[in-house]
Each structure stands twice: as structure tokens, then as C-alpha cells.
Amino acid sequence: MKPNALPILPHSEFFLGDNLLTSDYPLPIAAKDSHLFYQIEKILNMITLVTIFFTALLAVTDFTYQVLIHFPIQIINSLGSLLSYGVIGLIILVLVWIVGD
């Protein structure tokens, strides 16, 4: 075998590695053209797609929460703070006016 040549894989369900540079593989490896290889590839693709779907769902849920709940509550809180400061200011103004008379 040439030093940089790729090994020729057999057309079988499992490839034991005897055609590679070393045959120290404790477990069989699925051959590239085997049905098992493509089944594993399909399963990994499905896991990836499900992960992407739930990540996108989480992002949409978080965005919806921020826009519909968190930001309006923050605005109401800040308006409430301004209102309370205004009421305190009016009370102080009235007290100063009464005491000043």
C-alpha cells in the first residue's frame, strides 16, 4: 500500500480494520458504504435537527417573554417610580407652601 493512499473498504456491514495501516481496533467500525453507517448518520442528523428546533423554540419563547411581559412591566415600574416621586414632590411642595405662609 502506498504511504498516503486511502484504504479500500470492503462492501460489508462491518469493517474490522485489517485493511488499514494498523488493525488494533477493539470494536468494528461501520464501513462508509454500509447500511449501518447511513442509519447512524440519519440518527445523528435527526438529533441535530431536534436540538436546533428546541434551541430556536427557546429563543422565540425568550424573545416573546421579553417583549410581551418583561419590557412592559419595566415601563410600568419606571412610570410608577416617576409617579411616586411626583406625589412626594407635591407633598413637599404643599408642606413648604403651608409652612411658608
UniProtKB/TrEMBL annotation:
Keywords: Membrane, Transmembrane, Transmembrane helix. It comes from the Bacteria. The chain crosses the membrane at residues 43-61, 82-100. This is Similarity. Hypothetical start. It comes from Microcystis aeruginosa (strain PCC 7806).
